Amino acid sequence: GTRRKGHGGRDTEEGTLRGRTMRNLRRNLGRNLGRTGRRRTREHCCCRRAVQEEVCVFPASWSLDPKGSQSRSPTHAVTVSTADFRGAELTEPDAGIWIALFDADRKCCLANVRLPGLRFDRGASETFWVSCPELGRTVERVWIGPAGGSWQPEGIAVQRWTERGPGLSFSFRNASVLGERQEASAAELVAFDAAADRGRREAAAVRDRANFEEARRYMLGADAALVGLGTALLYLSSGRVDALNFGAGGAVGFVYLSLLSKSVASMGASEGEG
User: Fold this and answer.
1) What are the DSSP E strand ranges found in 39-86?
2) Backbone angles phi, psi at 139, to 5 degrees
3) Is the dihedral of CA 18, 20, 23, 24 positive or negative?
4) pLDDT at position 99, please?
5) Pick from 9, 176, 181, 239: CA 20 to 30 A from residue 253's CA?
């Protein structure tokens, strides 16, 4: 295939996912860091170096050493939750994933995460550390995608650590499958307030249950009214026997409908609590 020189004099393959991913990332970094022309700012150099080198990644078992070098010690704990359905797992775990953290000043930290034991299987929640001493106090955005194959990360949690211990935490959510033969090779996610989002979800669940209960009562009332009306009309037109048969059948149907709707309501309530 056609080859060209990439940043740092390295060859990148035009037709590969890695080549497309890295070219897209460089374009995104250019937009995220602002239009600085040829000026080589410190944060831009940091991102360019991270694009070329696989650095700044530590396993979850790493112990923070307050006396260690700030530039070589992990500064952020990243927990990635993979969606729990067939095909959501990372199909090429040996290639790992790419992740970039951006602060409020658009400085970034980029790493290729390839660690033993990190498979990013479906339904799994896995943690690793990255060293991003250049970042500010907040992580405003996350850029994430598979280095090969396809994958759907569902939730990303980033917690900043200092010498005094855990600091601010930030949550991100993704709803798309990323990678090969997908609409996007990577996703750029914006942080949201997890507590506020959970409150909105709980409030929406309460509203949904109330609406369902109202619809249930209306449906049962309408069914009882129709059974009663049909029974009365049959009594006037066909006699007592036909009316009793119709009424008995309608009563059985009413009881079945009531039990069925009550079962559906209890299922919805249990899912909301979970």
Assistant:
1) 57-59, 76-82
2) -115, 105
3) negative
4) 92
5) 239
153: left (phi over 0), alpha (psi -120 to 50) or beta: beta
- The stretches of the chain forming alpha helices (DSSP H) are 17-32, 42-52, 194-237, 240-273
Q: What are phi and psi of 264, to 5 degrees?
A: -65, -40
Q: What tens digit of pLDDT does each residue of 4-44 get?
A: 444 444 444 434 555 555 555 555 544 433 333 322 223 33
Residue that has been written with the tokens 């000026």 in this structure: 39
Residues 6+ apart with CB under 8 A from 46: 107, 108, 109, 134
- Who contacts 193 (Cβ-Cβ below 8 Å, separation ≥6)? 171
Contacts of 196 (CB under 8 A, 6+ apart): none
Phi/psi at 134 (5° precision): -80, -15
Average pLDDT in the chain: 78
- Joined together, the tokens standing for residue 204 give 């929406």
Give yes or no for a contact between 24 and 6, defined as CB atoms under 8 angstroms apart: no
3-state secondary structure of 196: helix
Regarding predicted confidence, which is higher, 239 or 273? 239
- What is the reported pTM? 0.57
Phi, psi at 149, each rounded to 5°: 75, -150
Q: Tokens in use for 181?
A: 């033969």
How far apart are alpha carbons 100 and 121 in whole angstroms?
Answer: 21
Of 174, 202, 74, the closest CA to residue 128 belongs to 74
Nearest alpha carbon to residue 75 among 139, 120, 119: 139
Q: Six-digit token pair at 167? A: 């600091």
